[in-house]
Protein 1
Amino acid sequence: MQFDNLLRERRSVHQYSDEPISESTLGEIFEAATLAPSGYNLQPWEFLALRDDEKKATLREIAYGQDHVEEADTAIVVLGHTDPMTHAETVFDDWLAKDYLPNEEVRDALVENVSEMSEMSASDRRTWTTRSTALAAMTIMYAARDRGVASCPMEGFDADALVDSFDIPGEYEPVMLITLGYPEAEASDIENERKARRPVEEIVHYDEFDPSDETVLAPADD
Ligand SMILES: Cc1cc2nc3c(=O)[nH]c(=O)nc-3n(C[C@H](O)[C@H](O)[C@H](O)COP(=O)(O)O)c2cc1C
């Protein structure tokens, strides 16, 4: 699909059909996520993909009863590792092997930089991992849409309950949930309607930042 069409046609979908997503399609969607950019290419993301009905029912409770978590074919818990060092040595060894880095001293200096980043506060570590992991999440949603699979990103969940119920180690930040499934053919008009967007002139500031003090919602093109 043309990227512009994909961008315009994506919706956050809450009504899913019973049609299953094949393992190969899911595999392609997650393969796309691996291609997302990340700070220093450290790729802090991991995904808990729930397909089992009981597990999705548990997640639905954690997501304050949002039905689409259970109705979707797959509910993804998007996790971000909060320690930048986790994959640093492997990634910089790859850079060195491919001559992106001139020598081992530069490789060691980069490892040292990232090691210092690891001393960040817990709050900064969560911000750090969320930046890259959210880009992987968006990549999943576009890759899914390109294959006719609808999605919905979600922040409405109890992170503490999620960590407890699914035994998520403390180093991981639950960044968001994503539901995935083929959309219900008879979906409601509200589902298909394009939600209004803030216009370009309100959100873009060339050369100087002059914060917007009003919100003008404009009907989007489609
Ligand atoms: C970070 C984030 C959190 C969201 N959380 C929820 C959620 O908990 N439940 C839900 O139904 N939709 C959720 N949404 C979907 C938004 O409501 C939706 O993206 C927005 O209304 C714009 O609609 P559109 O995605 O169809 O363009 C979330 C979206 C984002 C980006």
Protein 2
Amino acid sequence: MPVAQYFIPFIPYPYKGEEIACDLCGCSEFEVICEHDRRFKRLRTVACIRCGLMRTHPMPTEAEIIEYYSSIYRLDYGLTSSKPSRRHLNRARRQATDRMNLLAPVLKPGARILDFGCGAGVFLSHAKSAGFKTLGIEPGTPFARFGREEFGLDIINDIWENVEVPGEFDVITAIEVVEHLRRPVNAMRWLRDKLAENGVIYITVPNMLPSDKETFRLFHFAHLYQFTPKTLEWAGAAAGLEPDPRFEPDGTKIVFRKASKGEELPSFDRNHGEGLQEQYPKASVSAFLINGRWLQPMKNRLTKTIRDTIG
Ligand SMILES: [Zn+2]
């Protein structure tokens, strides 16, 4: 597959995909939310009529996803060599400290921590240094290898569907991971089953509520499902999870615990996806380029890159 097709703007991504039903509620009806992504490429995002969960349509097949990750994703994340970039690691260090602080109330001595999609293992290396027992799952081979070699971590290098993990965990984290998965609710259910009785799962995903950003700038080919605070909470409920009341809800960053009532699909009292497209402002990619509105986001991105590289 020519790699360039992933980068040339205005043309579709080189994939065929397949029609699927919503992973949260099983409904197949949808409304179109947007036809482009942040790279100005053609990419259709739809919202499930019933629950409002958004997804890429058609959904890339498993094989197409593997193709994408083996060619493009590594380029995108500075993984053209065998190790993550300094920029990536600096950012991950900052985020690891924040995550340890947030979870401190439930990190009892000797706690077992599973990081689902652990990347290069920066968070787990912090946790291990603090005396916790750690395990990572990471499908990306260069990341997994780096985490093992650099930090001496125990990391399983595979997709979650193939993984069997021993025992239960007091804390599970899945940071910006489930939106990349074709079956996010299934993955959350699988994680719930790995949870110790009073354990917690911290799940974060990008917040896709409408904002003043041009709508197409929300979307990214690697993100197969698009959550809002409500649909993330509902996905948790469908997987047998509920927000843990000890933690303040923070948009699409939720600390869950096992739900006392087990798995429960919310009773959708109305069609939450109907009319959703009107809440997402229509924006033309060409107008965005012509009027120079791209300058500010580009400047912001550059500033962040410089900070993360030097920091
Ligand atoms: Zn749905």
